[in-house]
Design brief:
With 476 residues, this protein is an alpha+beta fold. The chain has 15 helices and 18 strands. It is globular.
Length: 476
């Protein structure tokens, strides 16, 4: 519990107007996309690294918990204050400080959204590839904390490939500057890389130096529908020998296609086994040739329908099919256990077969879609009621999916992270020695355990409690 005296001290640091104990503000900032509320004692809106450093020093002196929060759109609870304490909401740290075309560098604060950054650099003829589906709401700081991806990762990679340098505040309140604005740097440990994917447990990012690329001259987008998921997956696998690397290869399974048709009919055949959205980009002449290869590849693998966008509007209409997935899937059950897994591309058919069989055996709909080009699949186990038995069976179904992903040579998350939602399953994906090394790093940087507790290797709840939203949850 954070005392009134401590809250007053925090007000001296950031300004009293930037500390809130109002119930509505606390509820809004004490959850993420899972909608499970863990009430903080106060929400603090810092503006500078120095303010955050002072708060972290106070947290170590007074032994209260601190959780950093960005856009709050994660699906594993990484930004939820599961042990109470205060939330550091980074909303005010939202400036684009520099876009340098000559150096291909952007310098931004952590609360700049992915969308804002992409639009700003595109206006300069530049390109920032990472594009999570939450791009309009997710903050760059959160993207870094979770090593966010998106459809374009097939060709360009995740966020970690675009982080050149970071300023961050350690759990004990030191301000660290790591990396820089040059693409090659062999000067000591890459502390910025340690922060990428650390889920807000090792430090709080305050400034980001990001690598940019020239904006591709052209792009072509196509939608292909296949009678079987096997044909679609064979098509994906065959691109490795085609001589091209698509910027995106998105897959929707039969259950996902039918969910879309139930939600908002789009003319997709309900008996189709799978759907692929394929996009290529680059120089105009090269893209024209790559588009031909895409057509040939889909024909080779027996696509029953093929549609290529003639312009940006038609490309947008194709991508709209993918954007319908989240609201469409949400309508198929009362509780959505939303997880992502990764398997080698060659094992996607085996994973899809397993999920289809598991759906039949469990009785749960399990729409599956995602980034087939890099094996990152989004799996949604849909529960029809809040009953404890249903939730326990749902948690067991999730465990079986994770176990199969690991068995096939993959892992339990590609971009969502672990947070508290996947913490009960973390030991499926890492060895005891690996987990202990992670704990050692955490203890070294956070000796008093004040920053973002209850995550990854520290379970905040049992698996069957994840995703359970009590309508009576309140903070007052």
């Amino acid at each position: 519990m954070v005392t009134p005296e401590v809250i007053q001290q925090i007000g001296f640091i950031v300004g009293a107007e930037y500390v809130s104990t109002a119930p509505d503000t606390i509820i809004a900032n004490s959850q993420d996309a899972l909608k499970q509320v863990f009430c903080a004692d106060a929400i603090v809106f810092p503006r500078t690294a120095e303010e955050i450093a002072a708060i972290m020093k106070l947290a170590n002196e007074q032994r209260f918990y601190v959780t950093a929060r960005g856009g709050g759109v994660g699906y594993t609870g990484g930004a939820a204050p599961v042990r109470g304490g205060i939330v550091l909401a980074t909303d005010r740290m939202n400036r684009i400080l520099e876009i340098n075309k000559a150096d291909l560098v952007a310098v931004v604060e952590p609360a700049v959204t992915n969308y804002q950054l992409q639009k700003a650099v595109e206006a300069e003829g530049l390109f920032y590839p990472p594009d999570p589906s939450s791009w309009k709401e997710s903050f760059i700081g959160g993207n870094i904390a979770l090593n966010a991806g998106g459809p374009r990762c097939v060709k360009y990679g995740n966020t970690k490939q675009f982080v050149l340098g970071l300023d961050f505040v350690t759990p004990t309140g030191e301000i660290i500057k790591s990396g820089g604005r040059v693409p090659k740097n062999a000067t000591g440990f890459h502390l910025e890389s340690l922060m990428v994917g650390s889920e807000g447990m090792l430090g709080i990012v305050t400034r980001c130096i990001l690598r940019l690329l020239p904006l591709p001259e052209a792009r072509r987008t196509a939608l292909a529908i296949f009678e079987s998921a096997q044909d679609a997956c064979n098509c994906v696998a065959d691109f490795t020998t085609s001589g091209i690397l698509p910027v995106a290869l998105e897959l929707l399974d039969r259950t996902s296609i039918n969910a879309i048709e139930d939600y908002e009919p789009s003319g997709l055949p309900r008996n189709a086994g799978a759907l692929l959205i394929i996009e290529v980009d680059g120089l105009r002449e090269a893209v024209a040739r790559e588009a031909e290869i895409v057509r040939e590849m889909c024909r080779k693998h027996r696509a029953i329908q093929f549609r290529e966008a003639a312009n940006d509007a038609e490309a947008g209409a194709i991508w709209e099919v993918r954007r319908k997935m989240s609201p469409a899937v949400a309508r198929t059950g009362k509780i959505k256990l939303n997880h992502d897994i990764v398997v080698p591309r060659s094992r996607i058919p085996a994973m899809l077969d397993f999920i289809e069989d598991l759906s039949r055996r469990s009785g749960f709909l399990i729409p599956t879609f995602g980034h087939a080009g890099d094996g990152n699949l989004h799996v949604n186990v849909m529960l029809q009621d809040n009953g404890e038995d249903t939730r326990r069976r749902g948690a067991d179904t999730v465990r079986q999916i994770f176990e199969k992903a690991v068995e096939l040579g993959g892992t339990i998350s590609g971009e969502h992270g672990i947070g508290y939602a996947k913490a009960p399953f973390f030991d499926l994906a890492v060895t005891p020695a690996t987990m202990e090394l992670m704990k050692t790093i955490k203890r070294a940087l956070d000796p008093n355990g004040v920053l973002n507790p209850g995550k990854v290797f520290e379970q905040a709840m049992d698996a069957h409690q994840v995703g359970f939203v009590n309508s009576d949850q309140a903070c007052c």
